[in-house]
Amino acid sequence: MKRFITIILAVVTLLSVSREISAQIRVACVGNSITYGTGTDDPASMSWPAQMQRMLGPDYHIANFGRPGATLLRHGHNPYVLSPEFRRALDYRPDVVVMHLGVNDTDPRDWPEYGDEFVSDYVALIDSFRAVNPDARILVARLSPLTSKHRRFRSGTRVWRQKVTGAVEAVAEATGAELIDFDEPLRDHRGLIGDAVHPDVRGYRLLARAVAGALTGRFGGLSMPEIWQSGMVLQRYKPLKVRGRADAGARVAVEVAGVRTEAVADNLGHWTATLPPLAEATGLTMTVSDDRGGRLVFTDVSVGEVWLASGQSNMAFELCNSTTSGTDTLRAADPQLRLFDMKPRVITDWNEWSEADKAAVDTLNHYLPSCWRQSSASSARDFSAVAWHFGRMLRDSLDVPVGIICNAVGGSGTEAWVDVDMLEERMPEVLVDWRSNDYLQPWVQKRAGENTGADGTHRHPYEPSYLFASGIRPLGAYPIAGVIWYQGESNAHNIEVHEQLFTALVDSWRRNWDDERLPFIFTQLSSLSRPSWPSFRDSQRRLLDSTGATGMAVCSDIGDSLDVHPRNKRPVGQRLGRWALSRVYGHAGVVPSGPLPVGAVCTGPGTVELTMKYADGLSTSDGASVRTFELARTDGLYYPAEASVIGGGKIQLKCNEDWAPRYVRYGWQPFTRANLINSDSLPASTFRLEVQSLRSAEEGIVSGVSGASAGRVGGGIVRAGGCNFPVNPLAPDSEKRFYSGIYRMDGSLAGYLPEATAYAATAPLSDGFVMAGGVTPRGSTAQVCLVSEYTDGMIVPERLPDLPVPVDNAAACAVGRRVYVAGGNHDGVPSNALYVLDLDRLTDGWKRLRDFPGAPRTQPVMAASGGRLYVFGGFAAASQGRDALLCTDGLVYDVRRSRWSRTAGPSGADGREVSLGGGVAVTLADGRIAVAGGVDRDIFLEALRKQAPDYLTHPAEWYGFNRSVFVYSPAENTWRHMDARADAARAGASAVADGDGFIMLGGEIRPRVRTASAIRINIE
């Protein structure tokens, strides 16, 4: 009887528990060891499902069905669907399923073999849960991080993880499941993943909190990053992205300056509302509210220019400590210069921090609370001296509100400011054992140890990616105009590593702000008695040339031989300001820099002629002779050189040797007394250059080029770029060479393109021309540059906004100051696209207009007349299932009406349609369009479809290049056959209008064989 009563009580208890569970929301946590809780002492209580149960309380019943080592793939080495955990999860009949699978599928046994099955296997898994409960809510998680410590990180796991994550996103889209993120909570906490895969209990707590938020939709209500406050400055003239958090599904409204926009918080509580561009203004009120009762009101808001100032101690250096602080603070009062100062909570000196400070740094709570303050004697004195002077210069020159955000940490290395994802992509080894590896300076590692104690478990601001995580990501990509940067002292020991880190830094921040051309203006290191600094300064100069949309302030003249913190900061801020005013804001009268080298040529034994840009009025800072130039025949064995300014931005260098110099350098002393300046008293940069052996020509260019660009600059004709086969052009292994030189008609060198380029679309302007896209030795490019005025005797092309995609063999023309690019290959595929760039509104970038009708066209000819664009000829290689084709007709685009129409192309005297593909077109003074050159229609089309083995073996006449010159009258829509001349039968030539005719330069007279001749064609 007693046993019977016990059994009855047990049954009653089970029924009670069952009823209790049935009243709760049943959540099944499906996954691998990261769901199970591997890496903790007690998975049953420390796993993220267990911790989430405690967070959510009795309204939820959380069941952990994690299977250590499980793969999502059915053909994987440990399929989850064959596990007992999977069967128990189905029997549980959950209301909600949280799935995190795919980590183990990055094993070499799995993804490389069966990756194509991942999406279908995942969909089938989801379907199995919906079969037992059609109303089940399904959440699928992006993968948690795998750190660079993982033994297979570089051999495949990193890349396969990215592919698995993409597949998970595809699964969510295909099934309608909710996508959540297991990467974001741990992204900046890699230290909580001790074995490279499994978080510790603190990491699992972060995952539990993230999933709990996704389940409940509660994220603490409406909030925004700290930078959004009363007194702030908003960036003008660009779409304004306002970001924040709110409970899932909340409708958020943003209102300012009479403009209102709305956004909805996603399932993870993120929202972004985009305001249209605002003009400069003051005294505004900005309101952010949601439909759940949240409301934020920001007053005294201005609209103007916002810049971020960052780096290490020389950027953090306060105005009160500078040599000019007395006079600066007297003029510091300016209500429309606003300062947001992000001061670190702890100082990285030689003392051990308190336990409270260590805990704050461990949790990324590195910065003290801050607010926007108007510039005044009190607010400016403890603000960055460099940043304040920069902001002051913008205020004086632009006369609009200016906001400066200062976020600089003494001693910090470049690696500390780079997003962890970018480091893992570019230089994952920097992250491994950072306290003892060779990538960080020993003193940096020692300082971190002093601050955090001997156990080495605490985080530190010098840790790679730490300052991005704690100081850049929390800004929430607050809209800015650009960045000024003063850093490098902590990376000068390893120049080659810094070069990689710096480009990673710039790319990381541009990705964070979703702006590929975000201006990044940096300070070249000053002078100091440290051996590596000359090489480091020169490396920074080369980074200026190789990293687009950057600027560099030279400060070697204001260094201190014994102090890494020179106190004269006013020139530094003002020189950074010059770059911004000249290159970002288009102030033509502002010289951005001191003299920078363009090229050096040997003009005789022991003699070199050096060309500089920004070199108007070359002189010396002290009235003495130019100092510190050196020449060498063997790099490393340098001899002093006598320097003479010879005008036109040129300097003649001589040394008492009878050999031909091969290298030149300047200012190559750690603490240098170099004294070369320009008329604005700006110093020349430290540099080292190789000397060209020829005065004016690149090797092989005398053979002639095809695919060059040409136009008028300074009243004369110049040709830029191009390519050829300079040696044995018909040999099967003949190498194609690309050129970067810009040449005058007499063959003398006038400058260099940013990169060797051929087959760029060329749009002539009244003085100069735009080169858009083209082919480089690396492949097709999206780069665009303006080849325009001479600067101190040399042409220095100006980089313009990149095309949206790499484009080659397109056509271009200009209507006024608007440049149009049509057709060509886009990422290797023939295109019908038409793009436009307004040279007076460069910040708008390229805009895609209406595609032209019919077939795509590569190498068409294009010209403008009377507000219309005319496109003739062109061809398209076989692509995307379409046969090769060639066009002989024309297209007309009415710019005002945005409308395409068709027109006829030219016909020869025999009535046969003429192909103009690969030819030239110019607009004459009377508005008519002259065309010449191009390939033969039938021969070229046959070669496109199937090139015969002997195609390259025929005489030039066999290829039938067009000999005729035609003139098209847009007013009458008629063609006139003008002439037939053998020397006009060329393809890939360039052409420039000239009086009552045009000049045709270069090109090929048969496949692979170029000509260097230029001919003038008169038009009646």
Description of the structure:
The protein has 1020 residues and is an alpha+beta fold. 22% of the residues lie in helices and 29% in strands. It is built from 22 helices and 64 strands. Strands 6, 8, 9, 11, 12, 13, 14, 15, 16, 17 and 18 form an 11-stranded mixed β-sheet that branches. Strands 2-1-3-4-5 form a 5-stranded parallel β-sheet, with helices on both faces. A hairpin with a 2-residue loop joins strand 8 (251-256) and strand 9 (259-264). Helix 15 (385-398) packs across helix 21 (570-584). The longest helix is centred in the first third of the chain and has 23 residues, at 153-175.
Question: Which helices and strands appear, and what pairs or packs with what?
Answer:
Layout: H1 2-23, E1 25-31, H2 33-36, H3 43-46, H4 48-56, E2 60-66, H5 84-91, E3 96-100, H6 111-114, H7 118-132, E4 137-142, H8 153-175, E5 178-181, H9 184-187, H10 201-216, E6 233-235, E7 240-245, E8 251-256, E9 259-264, E10 270-275, E11 281-290, E12 295-311, H11 313-316, H12 325-330, E13 334-341, H13 355-362, E14 372-375, H14 377-381, H15 385-398, E15 402-408, H16 420-426, H17 442-452, H18 466-472, E16 482-486, H19 495-512, E17 520-523, H20 533-546, E18 550-553, H21 570-584, E19 596-604, E20 607-613, E21 619-620, E22 629-634, E23 637-640, E24 642-647, E25 650-654, E26 663-666, E27 676-677, E28 687-690, E29 709-713, E30 716-720, E31 723-724, E32 737-738, E33 741-744, E34 749-752, E35 761-765, E36 768-772, E37 775-776, E38 779-780, E39 784-787, E40 790-791, E41 794-795, E42 798-800, E43 807-808, E44 811-815, E45 818-822, E46 825-826, E47 829-830, E48 834-838, E49 847-848, E50 861-865, E51 868-872, E52 875-876, E53 885-886, E54 890-894, E55 899-903, E56 920-923, E57 929-932, H22 937-945, E58 964-969, ...
Parallel strand pairs: 1-2, 1-3, 3-4, 4-5, 6-12, 12-15, 12-16, 13-15, 16-17, 17-18
Antiparallel strand pairs: 7-10, 8-9, 8-11, 11-12, 13-14, 19-20, 20-25, 21-27, 22-23, 22-26, 24-25, 26-28, 29-30, 30-33, 31-32, 33-34, 35-36, 36-39, 37-38, 39-42, 40-41, 43-46, 44-45, 45-48, 46-47, 48-49, 50-51, 51-54, 52-53, 54-55, 56-57, 57-58, 58-59, 60-61, 61-64, 62-63
Helix pairs in contact: 4-10, 7-8, 15-21, 19-20
